[in-house]
Amino acid sequence: MNPVETQLKELMLASLAGDARSYAILLNDVAKHLRFYFLRRLSEAHKSDADDLVQETLMALHSKRATYEPDRPFTAWLHAIAQYKLIDHFRRNRIRVTVPLDDAEDLIPADYSDPTSDRMDVESLLQSVPEKSRELIYRTKIEGQSIAEVAISTGLSQSAVKVSIHRGVKAIAAKLKGRAHGNG
Amino acid sequence: MATDDLIARLALDLKPVSRSSVAKRLAIGLGLGFAASWLLMVWWLGMRPDLMDAAATMPFWGKLAYTLLLAVIGAWAVKRIAYPLGSIIINLVLMAVALFAFGILAAGIFAMAPPEMHMTMLTGKSLAVCTFNIVVLSTPLLIGAFWVLRGLAPTRLTLAGAAAGIAAGAIGSVIYSFHCTESSMPFVAVWYTLGILIPGLIGAVAGRFFLRW
């Protein structure tokens, strides 16, 4: 289970029971997620509407909170309300939708980091892998070629390719573990 | 107004919400609608004078069972569609099965009856008046169902309106069957069913405008 979901759901359940402090924390967290959600879906010309949409959605969350069913994920419920408000906003203002609509996961992404910096992370990690493995990992995991294709073009056997990739990935995993413990 | 102020205001306004509050709202809305529609029937059309005798016959109960079943499916649909992303596929399937089964039964009775009876079976004594009366009787119920939905969070407004209309039409036809003296099943299958589907259509069209939140 997504940790954000677990946390928000706990806050929501406490709020439904009448705990105003949990409720204020919940609304603050939700407001941040919503701002990000709406900003990503509004075109440049309409970015200034994001705050209005956040407030409208918070008010809807408040007045419609009886429709949250505790056995369902909170984020899915919130997403449905946010999406309704967004579509209603488009309709009211006759804005043609150019951004694709989406799944509940989009509301609470795993992290908000920039995809470019993710790519840089991957490249720097790959640098730490022996030359031969690096090339193979790059071609299979990033370019998406099949093991068979790579085996043919490099002249290696398929099992040799697999072993080499496996070693390389293991080396990366070891390095990441080291980083997580603070000695990277 | 800043978002922080809004959050503080909402937190101040927080009251506990019980799990049954949606069901309660549904009961209040449809209950008041039922009472209004019932009074309208008694005052405008009057109870059928032979109610006691009719209550001993099969057609009365058959008619009541059919309309009551659709009323339950419809009221349940209103509750289900009141939640964000609520779906009423089950209800629509159940309703289709009920309409189909009753239709087959009515068609069988119609086919087995002597041909000279056919006309009376379908037109009865009250013909189109019946459908019209059910639509009128369902109006307070439709308003009640819309009130229920407006306080909740339907995200598919046309479907929500249709569910409200079908529930209103079905409950309205339950009430109407206490006035109406028609007893042939083919009659009920055509004119009562129409009296349920028309409010459903009205609700579907009205939903887009009146159910927004």
Description:
The complex is a heterodimer of chains A (184) and B (213). With 184 residues, chain A is mostly helical. Chain A contains eight helices and no strands. The longest helix of chain A has 23 residues, at 158-180. The model of chain A has no long low-confidence stretch (mean pLDDT 83). Chain B contains nine helices and no strands. Chain B has one domain (41-210). Helix content of chain B is 77%, strand content 0%. With 213 residues, chain B is an all-alpha fold. Chain B is elongated, with a radius of gyration of 20 Å.
Please name the defining characteristics of this protein:
heterodimer; A: 184 residues; mainly alpha; Rna Polymerase Sigma Factor, Chain: A; Arc Repressor Mutant, subunit A; 8 helices; 68% helix; B: mainly alpha; 0% strand
- The tally of helices of chain A reads 8
Overall residue-averaged pLDDT value of chain A: 83
- Main sheet properties of chain A: none
CATH level-two architecture of the largest domain in chain A: Orthogonal Bundle
Question: What integer value in Å does the Rg of chain B equal?
Answer: 20 Å
**Strands of chain A, count:** 0
Helix count of chain B equals 9
CATH homologous superfamily classification of the largest domain in chain A: RNA polymerase sigma factor, region 2, helix turn helix motif
Determine Rg of chain A (CA atoms, Å).
Answer: 23 Å
Helix content of chain B: over 70%
The CATH C-level class name of the largest domain in chain A: Mainly Alpha
